[in-house]
Every structure is written in structure tokens, then in C-alpha cells.
């Protein structure tokens, strides 16, 4: 007896049923090849999904890594900027302190400069006496000499100016009591000569003497510069001070040292 060996194709049957009593049964026959194709497609889909997920996750991780790096960089930059800000704040504070010191020094220099231009000096280069009013009146009692002529011209104090008359020995100098500009010089025969100095701060000093002025108008003078030379015939000097057009008592201004 011979046996006919044939390969049988394996098929799978899928039966679809319903809960309804009158429902029909449906059968689907799926061949092995079709099932393999479906399985392959499913496998490929799973692989693709896995690859896609891997790529997506890789991109996400890369983005997170970059963002983390950026955050670290921004933190570093922020710390650097904070340090620079503190450094700049320290420099600004130092500059403000330096500027404040310079302003104080400038104010002190200005104050010292203004103080230097106040006429506090003594108007004579050496010792001198202040002529009293009684003595000045006694000198004016003898108006005429034996021939009926007027006495020698003298420097008489002007009370309105609060003027002082200084009497000094021959060889003494009449000097400026503070720096300034010679505003006016007058020398006329038969009259008292005078020098007026403007000190540029409201103070003006006037020096009257019978001698010849040795300074010129508009010249700049320093404290102590000679204005007149005292000789035998011009031992008296009138000195007055004005402050903003008001006369000041020189004794309240003069600083006598020694």
C-alpha cells in the first residue's frame, strides 16, 4: 500500500460570534503567510516606534543637557556680573570719597585765598605810633607862621573814613596790607598823595602820605609791597579801609603780631 504524502497547507480559522440569539456566526480563514505578514508589519511598527522614541528621547535629553549647560553658564555669568558690580560699587565709593576730599581741599584753598586777600596786615614796614586826635588838634592850633603864611601841609585824619594816622621814623615804608590791584594813584603839588588798592573781595584800602607813591595804577601788588618811602618830611600816613562802600575801623582789622 502506497501512501500519498502531500504537504498540507495550514490555515487558521477565526470565528466571530455575537451574543444575540439569532445572530449568525462568521468565520474568517487566515493563511499562515498572511499572518506572518501581519506579524512582520507589527514588528516593524514596534521597531519604528522604538527608534522614534529613542530619537525623541535623545533629542529631549540633548535639549535638557544644553539647557542645563546654559543655566550653569548663566549662573556663572551672573556670579561674575555680581562680583563686577560689587567691585564697581567699591570703586564708585572710593571715587566719591576722593572727590569729596578734593572738594573739601578746594573749599579750604578758596577760603585760605579769600582770607589772604582780607587787609589784616599792618600798613607800615616797621614800628609806628598812632597819632591821637588831641595831638592832631594841637598841631592845627598854629595856622600861620611869623610871616602870616600857612603851616607845612600835614596829613589830617578824616573822621568819616574812620582813618588812622600812623607816625613812623625815617626809612620806614608804607606797605600794602593785602594783595590786590592798584586802583588809583595821585600825586599833586600842595596836596596829600594817596594810593588806593582794590583787594577784589569788597575790601578797598587807602594810603595817604606826603611823599611820592612808588607804585603805578593797575599794577598787581602783594602783601607787604612798598607804596611810599618815609622820609624826614613825610613821617605821617593816613590809612583807611572800606568794605562794600562802608568804612571799617582799621583797628578791628589789623593783626598785630609780636
Write up this protein.
The chain is built from three helices and twelve strands, in the order ββαβαβββββββββα. By secondary structure, it is of the alpha+beta class. It folds into two domains: 8-116; 128-140 and 152-253, Glucose Permease (Domain IIA) (Distorted Sandwich), CATH 2.70.70.10. Strands 3, 4, 6, 7, 8, 9, 11 and 12 form an eight-stranded antiparallel beta sheet that branches. A two-stranded antiparallel sheet has the order 1-2. The N and C termini lie far apart (165 Å). Mean pLDDT is 84; it is low at 140-150.
Summarize this structure as a short list of keywords or feature phrases.
single chain; 258 residues; alpha+beta; Glucose Permease (Domain IIA); 2 domains; eight-stranded antiparallel sheet; two-stranded antiparallel sheet; 3 helices; 12 strands; rod-shaped
Which SSEs are present, and which pair or pack?
Blueprint: E1 11-16, E2 26-31, H1 32-116, E3 128-130, H2 133-139, E4 164-168, E5 173-175, E6 180-186, E7 193-198, E8 203-209, E9 220-221, E10 226-229, E11 236-243, E12 246-248, H3 250-253
Antiparallel strand pairs: 1-2, 3-4, 4-11, 5-10, 6-7, 6-9, 7-8, 8-11, 11-12
